[in-house]
Amino acid sequence: MGITLLIIFSVAMVVSAIGWKKFIYFISIGYGYSIMAIGMAMMIMHYDIMLWSDFVLSALLMIYGFRLATYLLVRELKSKGYREILNANTKQHYPFVKTLIIWISCALLYLCQTSPLIFGVVNGRESDLWACIGISVMIIGILLEALADRQKSNAKKQNPDRFVDKGLYRIVRCPNYFGEVLVWTGMVLSGIGSYDTWWQWVIALLGYVGIVYIMFSGARRLELRQEKAYGNDPEYRMYVNNTPILLPFVPIYSVKKYSWLKG
User: Fold this and answer.
1) Under DSSP, is residue 161 helix (H, G, I), strand (E, B) or coil?
2) What confidence score (pLDDT) does residue 44 get?
């Protein structure tokens, strides 16, 4: 177990090192490709003991990570507005020590997020029931996130100066982030029955809480940007007052006042 955890952490460190080129890459392109690489590494290291469900979970990580990172990369190359947002977020110069800490922290987070797969493969599973449930939730999350990204891209092509409130965005203001939450909810669920010790539960839940926090933090940053851009638009005001920000049908309409949601 220890060797597998160390190898997966090393994989995350190597791939996410792209963040040294541009700080934001630690949690964007480096994040997606790290998750993809972890799924691939698990297949290579443990193909001889993996169940069919383990192969599916590994493949889902690869699909999820590749799609997300490639989408972000293409978006940066094609969208001037997105590049301006990235540049605004990376103007600040971070000292070497702080950058090193962020790099290590990101790699640890990615290890924790994918740890349910590691525990399921190395410890074995009591049954495939929870793995099947987790797989189903992950697939829904991946599809929702991809669809939300496509709908937003199409809407911005048609009207780049208007906020998006069509399709999935009628239900929730950040459906792509909600899809992300579902992906990692499914991952945690897939590991139930294979967590052998309390510390394995702690690692898995730390990864889950960490990514959920980051999604709410991202929703807050988006809300602040949109307030600045559309805050005086009556249609926008009606939209935000009636559409939950991250979780569908959960009446949380704003998180901008929560300054602790930073990351």
Assistant:
1) coil
2) 96
For the stretch 110-162, pLDDT in tens is: 999 999 999 999 999 888 899 999 999 999 999 999 999 999 999 988 998 89
Tell me, what amino acid is at 86?
Answer: L
For residues 60-91, one letter each, b for 16 or more C-beta atoms within 10 angstroms of the residue's C-beta and e for the rest, the string is: bbbbbbbbbbebbeebbeebeeeeeebeeeee
Least confident of 7-11, 75-79, 186-190, 237-241: 75-79
Q: Which residues contact 51 (CB under 8 A, 6 or more apart)?
A: 125, 128, 131
Contact predicate 140/168, CB 8 Å: no
pLDDT (0 to 100) of residue 92: 60
Distance CA 111, CA 14 (A): 13
CA atoms within 13 A on the CB side of 239: 22
